[in-house]
Amino acid sequence: xxxxxxxxxxxxxxxxxxxxxxxxxxxxxxxxxxxxxxxxxxxxxxxxxxxxxxxxxxxxxxxxxxxxxxxxxxxxxxxxxxxxxxxxxxxxxxxxxxxxxxxxxxxxxxxxxxxxxxxxxxxxxxxxxxxxxxxxxxxxxxxxxxxxxxxxxxxxxxxxxxxxxxxxxxxxxxxxxxxxxxxxxxxxxxxxxxxxxxxxxxxxxxxxxxxxxxxxxxxxxxxxxxxxxxxxxxxxxxxxxxxxxxxxxxxxxxxxxxxxxxxxxxxxxxxxxxxxxxxxxxxxxxxxxxxxxxxxxxxxxxxxxxxxxxxxxxxxxxxxxxxxxxxxxxxxxxxxxxxxxxxxxxxxxxxxxxxxxxxxxxxxxxxxxxxxxxxxxxxxxxxxxxxxxxxxxxxxxxxxxxxxxxxxxxxxxxxxxxxxxxxxxxxxxxxxxxxxxxxxxxxxxxxxxxxx
Length: 452
Description:
Elements: H1 6-15, E1 20-21, H2 24-27, E2 44-46, H3 51-64, E3 68-71, E4 88-91, E5 107-111, H4 116-124, E6 128-129, H5 142-147, H6 155-158, H7 161-164, E7 165-171, E8 177-180, H8 193-197, E9 206-213, E10 215-216, E11 220-228, H9 231-241, E12 247-254, H10 255-265, E13 277-285, H11 290-297, E14 304-308, H12 311-322, H13 324-330, E15 335-340, H14 343-360, E16 365-371, E17 376-382, H15 390-401, H16 420-423, H17 426-439
Parallel strand pairs: 2-4, 3-4
Antiparallel strand pairs: 1-2, 5-9, 6-10, 7-8, 7-9, 11-13, 11-14, 12-13, 12-16, 15-17, 16-17
């Protein structure tokens, strides 16, 4: 490869000339995030194939003082995985090793570039499932999901990515490799490095492999879509179904979202008429959990319902929830806000946030949905220019007022740095900065992410 960039030439000798992308057309897909809201120019993109190559790439970048943006499947929603101005993008998508499933331990070790869908298929063959599931499963990579501590629809039962980690391998800024892959459930020999790196958004190290906890394969599912006239009614049913041992997901969405999905996806409304609020409940077990779900719903107050144990009918009900994101994107470039509320304040937030926006930013068009059982709502705002943060300011300040978090599962990235102080104390932020300084003293890993 002939290049005027000496660092690119050195890296080409490590990863091969075909895996250092200098041409702007080849770099383009790595320089814009999934929302289309965040983008920038990279110095170039480098694509190492394994941990040894990642370590050498980082050693050479550190030696040259070149800032680095790590990137997985580029499905992030807060701008944390794309360059801001001339960084080297290190894509980890080629780290696709899938080791045999350890059936005795119920664990597996995989490369950071393995997609969630590939992991699910791999462990399914051995009779296991995985505890985290998200709609972008075909593109989202395990390394990126760890870096953002991805949550998704099963957090209620299995926890986020941090809860699935039993070991990790990662490369620090200077090229040294951290390798903690013993697969030990009990290991109290100091700090929990996997837990520390989960949710660090590529600011502390580049995850290259992970040892993951698996879950039993539970093939029997029962799903209910319920309609309500208010959030209060939905929360009353949530309180009833929480006691079901097989409960795995409880999702909430609203009239404007269902009507948007119906229009863009070409689906009929789920019921004869549209309702203000919807709750999607799913239970999973070895044997049919429908009797338990039906018993929990017996006597509950809702306006309409659909219950099923069939795969095709289940997929049809889930489409109204999972196709929210693509339908929102079809309307324009959204501001995607992912917040967490104490459950006791969730009804208040959902009832008032639209009014607050209408009063301050009347052109804003909010669409809400989320994982109601853990207090996580996704507030998508259409109708604003990509760099117009007025709605973000209104929403995040209201979340802080109610004792919530400005990010439940998407991370801080560069989108929310201005508001980090609202829900993290000065002492919290100082401690996080100290960790960053200790692991990345030159500040070359994902500069600007989390702290601004």
